[in-house]
Amino acid sequence: MGRLIVVSNRVPLPAKDGSPPAGGLAVALQAALKERGGIWMGWSGKTSAEAEPGPLAIEERDAITYALTDLTATDVEEYYHGFANRVLWPLCHYRMDLAEYGRKEMAGYFRVNRFFAHRLAPLIKPDDVIWIHDYHLIPLAAELRQMGFSNRIGFFLHIPWPPADLVVMMPAHQEIVRGLAYCDLVGFQTDYDLQNFAGYLRREEIGDEVGPGRFRSHGRMFRAAAYPISIETAAFAAFAGKAMASSMVRKAQQSVEGRDLIIGVDRLDYSKGITQRLEAFERFVVTNPGYQNKVTFLQVTPKSRSEVPEYEQMQKMVAEQAGRINGAIGTVDWVPIRYINRSIGRNLLAGLYRLASVGYVTPLRDGMNLVAKEYVAAQDPEKPGVLVLSRFAGAARELKGALLVNPYDTEGTANALAKALSMPLAERKERWRAMMDHLLAHDVAAWCQGFLDDLTAGA
User: Fold this and answer.
1) H-type helices in 382-424, by residue range?
2) What domains can you pick out in the chain, each with its CATH number?
């Protein structure tokens, strides 16, 4: 196997001191790149004032070549804010009511993918293996094939793949799917996503499954399978244990002394079900008065895509809802909801997971949701908390010890909170042990290795 080339919209550079960025995905991919030698290419995050961005910025660190390109303001608006995040993101999260399609934005999406291909082309050697990541870059494989590259190309979709009824609502859906057919291996988060993809090919009569995990479409044969992404399970568990000695974690522990802590951690996004979660928490307290002044709900929600109007509106709505609930059910000495609208350090977050009696993870739709896995990994084996998890998160296909809920069912979710907080220790341990054993066996390193092994098989 030759070098590995990873292509993603953004590239997480390691810190100047050589330490890797936070996050298991970056760590796993960097480990794979170091092992094989390779390139990580993507957008620098910078906007060029020129009509054509300057040359790639190349950085060499620990046997990895980081290749970063600027984009023009038009590119960012049409490709990133436009088609990727105002058409593909809502579509894949079952929210076509929020999609805003425009031909200009679609053209920009394909144009930037073509631009990425031309920027990457001079770096590619004949035996390199290329791994493309996420919805921003679905057409990239087709662009590379049209330029004559025959390298092994894999693609992994980090978000859900919706049913055919939703996909066909998107203009140019066949052209989008065509990009996947030019890969050798397409990876999805869950078996449900894979089934939706296969169903779309059959329904539109543009392809079919010709064998287990083998597909034919647009005149090409390729493979597709589910590869549930994961975390650095053992490392995160150890990190959470050490975090308990942090002064900030100790202060947090003292501030909730005598109360059960419920924690939710989400990027501010309409797919995360934050407003429904707040409503269910309010219902839980109102219908279980014995928990009044006995529980604190901490919701950590960093801002997201503030350039998109829907996200600005959502930020205001969530803050107002949290304030209304605190005003309605709080007391002089008890603020039921603590709402933090910014990022907090990984050390503090790991300690808060370990302190929390309940991990409250209830997205309306999510490709995987690694917060759920981090919460499980962070628990004290002798007194683990309980995970309340949306059945619409990809993690629900793996974490069988969680209490699964329908986030649209306010009363049902409120009842799950009550069950979680009253669950006997023996049952909590049994549920946690099953989930932790699974996460130890299926960590992010195993995910990365499994995908690459399948991509290079027969190469």
Assistant:
1) 410-422
2) 4-230+444-456 (3.40.50.2000), 233-441 (3.40.50.2000)
What is d(CA 354, CA 380) in angstroms, rounded to the nearest whole number?
A: 6
- Asked if 291 contacts 415 with a C-beta cutoff of 8 angstroms, the reply is no
Tell me how far apart the alpha carbons of residues 378 and 449 are, in angstroms, rounded to a whole number: 24
Taking the C-alpha atoms of residue 299 and residue 318, their distance in angstroms, rounded to an integer, is: 10
Helix, strand, coil tally for the chain in percent (to 5): 50, 20, 30
What whole-number distance in Å separates Cα of residue 256 and Cα of residue 294? Answer: 9
* Residue partners of 151: CB distance under 8 A and separation at least 6: 124, 126, 127, 128, 129, 130, 144
Active-site residue, from 133, 136, 158, 442: 158
> What are phi and psi for residue 208, nearest 5 degrees?
-165, 165
Q: Among 47-51, 73-77, 372-376, where is mean pLDDT lowest?
A: 47-51
For CA atoms 81, 83, 87, 88, give the dihedral sign.
negative
Distance between CA 345 and CA 349 in Å, rounded? 6
Q: Is 453 a catalytic residue?
A: no
Does residue 75 have an active-site annotation? Answer: no
Q: Which residues pair with 224 in a beta bridge?
A: 186
The pLDDT tens digits for 88-135 are: 999 999 999 999 999 999 999 999 999 999 999 999 999 999 999 999
Q: Is 378 helix (H, G, I), strand (E, B) or coil?
A: helix
Phi-psi map region of 106: left, alpha, beta (phi>0 left; psi -120 to 50 alpha):
alpha
Helix residue ranges per DSSP H, 11-156:
24-36, 73-75, 89-92, 103-120, 140-146
Rounded Cα distance between 377 and 163, Å, is: 32
Catalytic, out of 70, 75, 260, 366: 366
- Dist. CA 428–CA 282, nearest whole Å: 24
- Tell me the whole-structure pTM to 2 decimals: 0.95
